Amino acid sequence: MKRRSLLGLAGLGLLGGWALRPSDHGQPYSPYFATLNQLLRRENPGVPLLVVDLERLDQNAELLAQQLGARLPLRLVAKSLAATGLLDYLAKKLDTQRFMVFHQPQINQLAQSFPQADLLLGKPLPSAAALHFYQQLPPASAFDPPRQLTWLIDSPARLGQYAELAKALNQPLQIAFEIDIGLARGGFADPAALAAALSWLRDTPTLLRVRGLMGYDAQLAHTPFWVTQNVAFTQSTARYRSFIAAAEQFPGLWPQQPLLNGAGSLTYALHAKGDSALNEVSVGSALLKPSDFDTDLLSAQQPALWVASPVLKVLPGQLPFLDSGYSLLQGWNRNRQQNYYLYGGQWPAEPLSPSGLSYDPLYGRSANQERLIGSASTGLHVDDWVFLRPQRSEGLFELFNQLVLLRNGRLVGSWAAHNRA
Ligand SMILES: Cc1ncc(COP(=O)(O)O)c(C=O)c1O
After folding, report:
1. Total domains in the fold of the chain
2. What's the Cα-to-Cα distance from 146 to each of 149, 209, 258, rounded to whole Å?
3. Ligand 1 centre and the CA of 288: distance in Å?
4. What's the rounded mean pLDDT across residues 114-134?
């Protein structure tokens, strides 16, 4: 009796376990990616590609323009859109020549490609990097740094270093102060600290010219459960205004029309619909909407960027050293039926289409031939293309050298990516 009930329990356990068996997640391409797969099978260089959907990019840009209206001018975040062709396209479409830059070689690239641009640093750079910018700027350049470039100052020490740099270069340098309005990523911590820096500037003859403030507020996208986003926005805005009030105590230094920069893809919508202290917002990633930007505030934007890679091999599922043991695993999980090997890999991206493909945690990742597992229901063959959705656009373009442009189901050109060096 006892033994029978034990057996019964074991049987129930097995049945229950079987009920927990993963379903077959594999599905063929959606129509969008089926068309793209056919297109890439016909015309492609046979290597992994980064594809930008220009129709979706246009829609995202139009939506952004609508949200910002004339009230909040736009500064394009160059690190998230790091290709001159893309920046040029968006600058024209969105009618801006303002760019936010984060890397010294990119400042030189932008100064050359956009000689009319207004460049603002998005992070404070060592003054040695700033010096390199001036050394690498061709003497005949139409770009005029004292008017068109603004360095970011986060501390009294950096203020002193940039004052020295301006003296060594014997030319005026524009600066903006990085202020901490809740992100806890450095910058002047409170209005008194900013006032102290401005007092030093008032009392010290330098070639520095104050342009304004930069206060980034990405923390608003990640509020803990005890804080509501709107309340946090009101608080960070009040904090921004308290820095402005402190700066206004220095009328000789503080410009009549200061630059009040802030926000980013994750938060510009709060500024667009709320009471903002800013007179411009920075936006980059939202225009391509990689998956780190799947937030409520960006729900109307569409993903416009894919990693595409040809399938090199389709093999029956297997793992080294497991031999027949693997068929048990496979019987249990049909999503281990096949192994698909891609050309390249280890991108910051998740497999998207055909659906039901995933990385194999038991096998690991590879930058050379990435292995994906999936069921035969994906219908994937050698020379088909797998599409992955990037998590972010920052730091991604340089892995591919170029962006391939898709419009109306056709490949219509390419844009070279900025290189990192
Ligand atoms: C200072 C600053 N502003 C704005 C942004 C927003 O960039 P994105 O719109 O690409 O998220 C960032 C991103 O890191 C940033 O550091």
Report:
1. 2
2. 6, 9, 16
3. 14
4. 98
Task: Say if residue 258 is in the same domain as residue 112.
Answer: yes
Rounded to an integer, what distance in angstroms lies between the CA atom of residue 255 and that of residue 272?
Answer: 24
Provide the pairing of β-strand 371-374 with 358-359. antiparallel
Q: Rounded CA gap, 129 and 134, in Å?
A: 9
8 belongs to a structural domain: no
Tens digits of residue pLDDT in 242-257: 999 999 999 999 999 9
CA angle 40/42/45 to nearest 5° reads 60
Residue with the smallest CA separation from ligand 1 atom 5 is 264
Both tokens of residue 307? 């990693």
| CB 357 within 8 Å of CB 396 | no
385 lines ligand 1 (CB under 6 A): no
| pLDDT (0 to 100) of residue 6 | 47
The answer to pTM > 0.90 is yes
Q: Is residue 129 domain-shared with residue 274, that is, in the same domain?
A: yes
Task: Provide the CATH number for the domain around residue 308.
Answer: 2.40.37
Measured from the CB, is residue 282 less than 6 Å from ligand 1?
Answer: yes
Q: Are 54 and 83 in contact (CB under 8 A)?
A: no
Residue 216 Cβ < 6 Å to ligand 1: yes
